[in-house]
Amino acid sequence: MKVTVAGAGFVGLVASACLAELGHQVTCIDIQKEKINMLQCGRSPIYEPGLEELLEKNLCNKQLHFTTSPHQAYSGADIIFIAVGTPENHDGSADLKYIHVVSHTIAHYIEQDVIVCTKSTVPVGTNELIQQIIESRKPPNLQVEVVANPEFLRKGSAIHDFFHGDRIVIGTNHSEAAAFMEQFYLPLKIPIMKTDIRSAEMIKYAANAFLATKISFINEMANICKNVGACIEEVAYGIGQDKRIVHHFLKAGIGYGGSCFPKDTKALIQLSGDFKQRYELLEAVINVNNRQQSLPVLKAKEIIGSLQGKKIALLGLAFKADTDDIRESAAITIIKELLEAGAVVTAYDPIAIPNARRIIGNAIEYTEEIRQALLNADLALIATDWDQIKHLPLEVYLTHMKEPIVIDGRNCYPLQEIRQYPIIYRSIGRPDLPNTNDTFE
Length: 441
Ligand code: UDX
Prior knowledge:
It contains 18 helices and 14 strands. The protein is α/β, with parallel strands linked by helices. It folds into three domains: 2-195, Rossmann fold, CATH 3.40.50; 204-291, Orthogonal Bundle (N-(1-d-carboxylethyl)-l-norvaline Dehydrogenase, domain 2), CATH 1.10.1040.10; 294-426, NAD(P)-binding Rossmann-like Domain (Rossmann fold), CATH 3.40.50.720. It has a six-stranded parallel β-sheet with strand order 3-2-1-4-5-6, sandwiched between helices. Helix 5 (97-109) runs parallel beside helix 6, helix 9 crosses helix 11 (261-274) and helix 12 (280-304) packs across helix 13 (330-340). The longest helix is centred in the middle third of the chain and has 32 residues, at 197-228. It starts with a strand and ends in a 15-residue tail after the last strand. The structure holds uridine-5'-diphosphate-xylopyranose (UDX). Residues 151-155, 208, 211, 215, 249-251, 253, 256-258, 260-261, 319-320 line the site of uridine-5'-diphosphate-xylopyranose.
């Protein structure tokens, strides 16, 4: 089938590569010439494990093409996926300018009947708007059906998620379009849910809001655990055994970040407000998350007092492991707070440094060597649970730092391991170490 994907961002590129891998003839279009040039050479503008290999392979076997030409992209397409960005407006609502532009362009360039499938996260009612825009501008003899098809890909495991997702949601009020999409996705052998267009749009927001709520719930619980002398990991395991709760997304830490949860929770609050309904639960979720991101610096001040002139090793810049994405990363909040407090920061990250440098600039030092970051540091602060950090021999904190003080925002190390070393260790929702009964050999 001839498939066109509009937008060569994270969702568009993963969809393009994976649909080509499934055997479709895929054309991916973007307005950014530089990005398309790079992709035509088989280089990915984003870091996503396995993506570059799939791009290269399918470019080579001519299943995949990149273009900036709308005529080339849209004129012969059987199905068009919209995967353009929907950034955040100042008031938290979704900015639909790219959706508008792409809808107009599709209407102008299509030359045959086509299904237009929206993968971008869009507020409820947007797919109907896309249908109206295309309907009013397309050649009158052509039939176009717009389908909501929200995406649940996670950064860092997007290729796996595409082929092994929990469900595919197809939202349309048109039975033929629903049947067409069902056939299209059949080879993936993933459960398909067909629903109306507005419910499909809402499912995406509801899923992200619920997952964000789980994270803020467990972080709030973690803070209580710490106060009462319980351990959040035991509590999370205990409640996760309940099939109604399940253990996923119950890992306490310094809050969620990334391009989806922060943006989509705010957009849902905004959407709810449009109907004069305050979404108080989600407001609390966001407040808890903001507070959680500030915990590490508070803990640092508790231990060493003023941070003025203190050398801090910040381990991890990405919002989570296996991505170079730093959008809404807790690390960025932490850096700003550390700099305000007068600290001297050296940040370690294996791949996110170029992205961080674009935001933070030269206000801090960067290194791709953990040991370099730790050298002579007064305190280490872990913001991302990279494997490189989790597998660091704990002796390194003793041999490299001025004082072995570690604030672990991602609970990277088992307490029984830390207990074997004279490290002053604070984590999330777990007892402080050393406690008064600990002795070291
Ligand atoms: C998320 C959704 O999972 C995905 O379905 C949607 O399409 C896009 O948004 P992503 O942002 O890539 O995906 O990352 P995810 O793995 O969901 O993690 C989001 C944030 O929550 C990260 O900062 C992560 O560190 C944090 N997190 C996640 C926790 O703090 N605890 C957890 O238990 C899980």
